[in-house]
Model the fold of this input.
Amino acid sequence: MYEIGKREIDAVAKVISSGMMFRYRGGEGGWCDKFEEAFAKTIGTKYALSVSSGTGALECALIAAGVRPGDEVIVPAFTFIASPLAVLAMGAIPIIADVDESLALCPKSVEANISRYTRAIMPVHMSGRPCDMSALKRIAKRRKLVIVEDACQAAGGSYRGKRLGSIGKAGGFSFNQFKIITAGEGGAIVTDDLTGYDKALIHHDGGCVFRKHADKVSTPFFAGTNFRASEITGAILCQQLKRLDGILRRLRARRAAIRAELAKAKAFRLSPCNEDAGDCGVSVPILFETVKEMRAFLKRHGHKAPFWMGTPIDTGRHVYPNWTPILKKHGAFDPKADPYRIHAHRQISYSKDMCRKSLDILGRTIALGVPYDSTVADARQAARALARL
Ligand SMILES: Cc1ncc(COP(=O)(O)O)c(C=O)c1O
Done:
């Protein structure tokens, strides 16, 4: 969380005083609706739908993009486990591909993992760092695949003038506590496709029973679930969205200052970035030649750096060897509901060392958290000191 305060408190107070915390049956035209309109405008899509989590948003995005049970969806080896879990929840099969030095999905590895059953590619813009969307779009076009963006960590980021989340067929965002804008929990799905939006609408709301204009939905109802957002969430997000540009400006100014200094370092180099201008500025990853050098640097200097320093390889369920239920192919609560058993068109095997390139890169990387509360001058000075080590 970067910024929250009086505006959000006042908005929540208004919701509670109104007595209407539910977005339907009286809540129509309220905060969730306002947020959706503003978010779609910000991201540049025709439709946005608030949901209760990023995981729910990804499920809805997969449905909106036409992913079906048994389809294979290529996900990166470095992402929160929620990305492949959403794929499994739809009855589809996650196929794990490598990331490259940008820490994002490697287009070459995507190509190598396409099978006759592949339906979608899920680029994940980790830490607000844009994936190589041009290369991925080329592959998707040539191989007739759809792109479903996991923009959970990347609200407001962009690639070649388009906001992340709006480049593929559908995109999912998370607004949990640790995201660029937040309501503690929450999410949104964006798309330009009306049928896809309607399917997401039905899926996220049990069967769309509460919605006033339910009879106008273009798709026949099916049994969905409940990812509805509350008016409290909607009210907070309306205020958070107003802060988004300011948050990004602040992050990016500090990131630029840090990168300019760290570019002069001899002990490491900056991790490549697929698009500098579109990076949200959450972190600055640096890359060492060897795992040993990275560990030694961290041991010697980690504690005195004024930055938060994290090692992507140690981020638990953000790295595929720690996706235990997936590696064991326990795809659901019961074998009779398990996509690996009932929907997969072929035998899938995973192993802890299947993406060695990713493990090597993640194992040589340190991610510096961009210090939001520092001045640009302080951030620059600290980076200068680090570069001299
Ligand atoms: C890349 C990524 N995808 C999906 C999710 C899932 O979001 P949520 O926790 O809101 O369900 C997260 C959340 O941490 C994430 O970082």
